[in-house]
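R.M. (postdoc): so does anyone remember the format we settled on? I'll just put the structure tokens first.
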């Protein structure tokens, strides 16, 4: 992946230039730890390398194993960097970050240098909203996948709505021939367009893991799994994603540790009569799911799969004016040790009126209405719900708030809805110009887990 063009990087290099090596060429081809020392000599200002960053953080009480959000929060004034380092070309910084993308800690160290470096190096935390285009044929150079993130608006005209969605770069952009059909634990689930080839992909380090092809003529929709990769995954499949009333069937991955080519998806026993919409995992159960009938399904692990199922109906408040969404309307997720069911509804006569009902699943398998999910922000889409700890003062990770793309299968608007469960206030976060939900299919949220969290990323890019 190349950074945006610039006069410096776009200038053809002559044979002499390769032999002598211009500054730009040397900077982008040298290891970052060498660049840190080289800039000290060339500019006389930057005395920063990965070792220096680690030392600076340790002095402030932040070790390398500290959560990346603490690293991001290091004040610029607390880190030494000369004034001239702030004027390094953004393209150079981007290239160096791309070379470091297999180590999130190194990229986070770059973002800790100063505000200029932080703005030039892509965020590695998320949350991101991943959209895939519907069109069969795209104009040359048009990406099939677009990645959005919430940003603060700088224009005075946006004073009424100071947060908006914006297209952001990724250290590892998915192949232009792939479409996204789900996400979980910081990985997006991709499908090679026009084929049955499925795989998981990391937007940070670019590594992937092959998945079994979908069963028969089914189309995958949503990926669900625990953070431990040796446990079977689950997916929802359908035969028509364009039908808002389509039925989603639950499949799980049958694994063969001796032969990876024999992995396959199988219908989850006992669920073929149920339209599954969302899944989560917990101790002592195979899975907990939500159906389109406003029911929670619990498959207890004391029995074989499909033989210990418990069905709990949600006490949905009756309101003749509100209808539960067909798409993105039913979700089950876990915050700390609590399991919640979330139902989204819309007024058929006024598309701007949206409401949410949240239920807490208690130990006796009772669903109790609640307006509090604790100090968490939850992101809902065609994926396993993303649950992140709330951050004080954050405009995109607010406490007790649900974020969801405004697309119920009948009404699709280019915006994200931010729903405060305490006040029931619904805020609109607009998509950027040129990004319309009419051009895109399903939307998936993805966020990188903590540096010392998910096993997936411990193996891949958390070093």
């Amino acid at each position: 992946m190349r950074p945006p063009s610039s006069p410096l990087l776009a200038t053809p290099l002559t044979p002499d230039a390769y032999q002598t090596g211009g500054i730009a060429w040397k900077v982008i081809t040298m290891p970052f730890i060498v660049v840190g020392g080289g800039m000290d000599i060339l500019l006389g200002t930057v005395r920063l390398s990965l070792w220096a960053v680690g030392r600076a953080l340790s002095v402030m009480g932040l070790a390398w194993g500290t959560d990346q959000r603490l690293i991001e929060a290091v004040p610029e004034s607390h880190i030494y960097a000369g004034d001239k380092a702030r004027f390094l070309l953004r393209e150079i910084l981007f290239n160096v970050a791309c070379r470091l993308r297999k180590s999130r800690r190194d990229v986070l160290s770059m973002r800790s240098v100063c505000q200029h470096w932080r703005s030039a190096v892509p965020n590695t935390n998320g949350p991101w909203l991943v959209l895939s285009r519907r069109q069969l044929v795209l104009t040359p150079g048009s990406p099939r996948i677009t990645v959005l993130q919430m940003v603060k608006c700088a224009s005075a005209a946006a004073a009424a709505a100071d947060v908006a969605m914006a297209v952001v770069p990724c250290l590892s952009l998915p192949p232009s021939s792939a479409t996204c059909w789900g996400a979980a634990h910081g990985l997006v689930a991709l499908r090679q367009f026009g084929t049955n080839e499925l795989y998981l992909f990391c937007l940070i380090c670019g590594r992937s893991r092959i998945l079994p092809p979908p069963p028969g003529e089914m189309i995958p929709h949503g990926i669900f799994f625990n953070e431990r990769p040796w446990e079977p995954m689950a997916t929802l499949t359908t035969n028509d994603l364009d039908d808002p009333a389509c039925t989603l069937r639950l499949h799980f991955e049958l694994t063969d540790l001796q032969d990876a080519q024999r992995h396959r998806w199988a219908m989850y026993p006992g669920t073929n009569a149920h339209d599954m919409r969302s899944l989560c995992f917990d101790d002592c159960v195979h899975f907990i799911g939500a159906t389109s009938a406003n029911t929670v399904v619990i498959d207890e692990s004391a029995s074989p799969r499909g033989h210990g199922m418990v069905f709990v109906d949600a006490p949905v408040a009756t309101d003749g004016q509100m209808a539960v969404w067909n798409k993105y309307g039913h979700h089950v997720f876990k915050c700390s040790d609590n399991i919640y069911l979330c139902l989204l509804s819309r007024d058929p006569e006024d598309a701007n009126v949206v409401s949410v009902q949240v239920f807490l699943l208690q130990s006796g398998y009772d669903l109790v209405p609640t307006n509090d999910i604790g100090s968490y922000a939850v992101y809902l889409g065609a994926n396993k719900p993303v649950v992140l700890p709330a951050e004080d003062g954050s405009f995109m990770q607010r406490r007790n708030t649900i974020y969801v793309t405004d697309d119920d299968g009948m009404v699709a608007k280019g915006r994200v809805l931010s729903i405060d469960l305490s006040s029931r206030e619904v805020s609109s976060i607009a998509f950027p110009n040129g990004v319309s939900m009419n051009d895109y299919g399903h939307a998936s949220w993805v966020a990188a887990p903590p540096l010392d969290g998910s096993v997936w990323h411990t193996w891949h890019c958390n070093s």
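R.M.: ...and that's the designed sequence above, right after the tokens. Also worth knowing: The chain has ten helices and 26 strands. Residues 178 and 442 are 13 Å apart (CA to CA).
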